[in-house]
Amino acid sequence: MLAACGPESTPPPSDENGKALLMRKLELIFVPPFSIDSFAKTSGQNKKEGNTELYQMDFTAVVKYPTDEIRCIYPFCPQLSGGDLQALFDKPKKTITIKGRLTFEKTAEGWAGQM
What we know:
single chain, mainly beta, elongated
């Protein structure tokens, strides 16, 4: 067995970490009820900005809502126009496919999701 020398590395955020961060973001966008039906990381990369270590996770997720329409907290869901999240609404299936990027910052306790 080989041991690596140097500081212990922190594994990148998991799909579950990404799903949890996306849920926190969606709670600021949509009026409940809704749920994340699926979440998949499509790519990830480490990045450094100054002294801050970041991890950027690209993902695709499907959000389901049980009512006839999903309502946004703010008119027209401005958080889904450009920026880090893009959404495709499918009203007959009562789903929203969301693609985007989540950013995590490395801390002493591990990775912390950025809102």
